[in-house]
Amino acid sequence: MSTDPRPPEMSEEEARELLASMTPGEIRQLAPVLHAIRRWVDVQREVSSDIVTEGFANRFALTLRIFHALHDRGQVLTKKSFEFAFKEAVEADGVHSAEITHDPTFAGRDLLLDDSVAVSLKTEAAMGIKDGRITISKLMESAWTKGCKEPADFLATVPRITSHLRSYGRLFVLRVFGRLESTQEVRYDLVEIPVSILLAAEKLAVEDFGAITSACGTTATVRGEGAELYKLVFDGSDQKITVRDLRVSRCRWHASWTLT
């Protein structure tokens, strides 16, 4: 059990007393953050979502306001920041509990939901992000593919990937569109990828693999229900597994937050 580094929650009276005790200089330094907290954010959410309740949506919007007040206009929420933001938001209503996995060497879940559900959290924030297709740039590391030279070699490693996927109960991706610096607007979409779709990789065959690259990598086309589901990329240069071109329409959209 990890120790939560956050200070305890303040009551409204304690917050007022803290503000009253601040010097004029401290208040001036805090002014941009206070202004950002009042910034308008357009929130759209799926009302049937079991994760994004009204409390979650509002707390996550507050986190985004504060983040963009403290960072350069070209920056967006990072993977680690997303983990903490997700935990804070999911606990906002007092319905769910969440525990972050703080060990950076741990290759499994990022967060444990309600003491029982292992959750993987990913971010997708490339400038060339596709609205209708998802890319997970690093599903997992894959140093064990170094010796692979033929499609059959890569196929033999697929059980490692599916075993890793089976350790998750749920997988969420925070997709980021635009930048305040260039587009004057930034939109965050929270999408859930069904683990069952990713597990379709169990049905891969040798003929589903493409040519072997000079960096000793390859790409396999994962199919299901008579259609292409996504591409599983074995990146030989970075020794990682990537998911590419997974249709958003096959996933569950939970909410969007747009800041201008």
Q: What's the SSE blueprint?
A:
Layout: H1 12-21, H2 24-37, E1 41-45, H3 54-70, H4 79-90, E2 98-100, E3 111-113, E4 117-124, E5 133-141, H5 151-155, H6 158-166, E6 170-177, E7 186-192, H7 195-198, E8 218-224, E9 227-235, E10 240-247, E11 252-259
Parallel strand pairs: 4-6
Antiparallel strand pairs: 1-11, 2-3, 3-4, 5-10, 6-7, 7-11, 8-9, 9-10
Helix pairs in contact: 2-3, 3-4
Mean pLDDT: 91
Low-confidence runs of at least 5 consecutive residues:
1-6
Q: How is the main sheet built? A: 7 strands, mixed
| Rg result | 21 Å
Anisotropy-based shape: elongated
Instruction: Output the helix-strand order.
Output: HHEHHEEEEHHEEHEEEE
User: How many β-strand stretches?
Assistant: 11
Q: Report the total helices.
A: 7
Strand content: 25-35%
- Strand order of the biggest β-sheet: 1-11-7-6-4-3-2
Can you tell me the number of structural domains? 1
What class would the helix/strand composition place it in?
A: alpha+beta
Fraction of residues in helix:
25-40%
Distance between the termini: 39 Å
Structure characterization notes:
This protein is α+β, with helices and mostly antiparallel strands and 260 residues long. It has one domain (13-259). Helices cover 27% and strands 29% of the residues. The protein has a 7-stranded mixed beta sheet, with helices on one face. Strands 5-10-9-8 form a 4-stranded antiparallel beta sheet, with no helix packed on it.
